[in-house]
Amino acid sequence: MPTFCAPDGTRLAYRTIGDGDPLLCIPGGPTDSRYLGDLGGLSRHRRLILLDPRGTGRSAVPEDTASYRCDRLVEDVEALREHLGLARTDLLGHSAGANVAMGYAARYPRSIGKLALIGPSTRAVGIEITGATRLELARLRKDEPWFPAAFAALEAVSAGTGSDWDAVTPFFCGRWDDAAREHHAAGLPVNREAVAHFGADGAFAPEATRAALASFGAPVLLLTGEFDLNSPPRSTAELAALFPDATLSVQAGAGHYPWVDDAGRFAAAVAAFLG
After folding, report:
1. DSSP for 93-123, written as a single string
2. Using an 8 Å Cβ cutoff, are 151 and 121 in contact?
3. Per-residue pLDDT of the chain (275 residues; tens, 9 = 90+)
4. What is the DSSP secondary structure assignment for residue 50, as one 8-state letter?
């Protein structure tokens, strides 16, 4: 597995899958990039360069835990671009990784060809996703056999009287079967320090990021699942409105991992956008 050196000397790892023009991919979590797989066959269209964020996968644990902050992770992406010798690259961020990707777009706009935000978190720009929004979206799944128990857990979480996110998990998947259970478990963060420090004080500057993205000239794809409780279509549309050149795509029947729910549809949509 190839590695490179981050600005603070931390040795970071990445995987490469497929051929063609490069697409730098930032996973969510923060966790290692294995759960992205080959993004539903997107590797048949692009050479995927999948970064393991510091302290995850085969990337080293940094000496300074403050370097797990989202704004600091932006510089790791820039170091990878320089390591690969790319004057400009297309960039994809999933979930929490979309915050890093937006931070990169704000700081290094000229280094991005096209930007794809998949099931994006909106913390970087201060868009709040309310409990009411999530409950409204969750009710679309009322005919699922697992719905009663999962919805009760979600109501408790939304009301602040519960914290059983494991019981809510089915809402994050377009279909809840053994394959979905296995995939979701594989993507869970292992490094709790990386998660805890990701959004620490100073990690996000919403007003400054919004201002920078308002002048971001590259094309942006915002793709989320119809049932994505993490990144509801309504909130993703609000995020799309911040960019001058944005395309919003809502994948029918999908949850937070659209390349798992319908690999062909996902890969075709992203490949068409990237060109």
Report:
1. EETTHHHHHHHHHHH-GGGEEEEEEES---G
2. no
3. 899 999 999 999 999 999 999 999 999 999 999 999 999 999 999 999 999 999 999 999 999 999 999 999 999 999 999 999 999 999 999 999 999 999 999 999 999 999 999 999 999 999 999 999 999 999 999 999 999 999 999 999 999 998 898 999 999 999 999 999 999 888 899 999 999 999 999 999 999 999 999 999 999 999 999 999 999 999 999 999 999 999 999 999 999 999 999 999 999 999 999 99
4. E
- Angle, in degrees to the nearest 10, between helices 70-84 and 97-107: 70
- Long-range contacts formed by 235-240: CB under 8 A, 24+ apart: 235/122, 235/127, 235/129, 235/133, 236/120, 236/122, 238/122, 238/127, 239/117, 239/120, 239/122, 239/125, 239/127
261 beta partners = none
Question: Is 195 in contact with 189 (CB distance < 8 Å)?
Answer: yes
Q: Which of 195, 193, 168 is nearest to 97 (CA)?
A: 195
Task: Identify whether the C-beta of residue 127 lies closer than 8 Å to the C-beta of residue 239.
Answer: yes
pTM of the model: 0.97
> Cα 271 to chain center, whole Å?
17
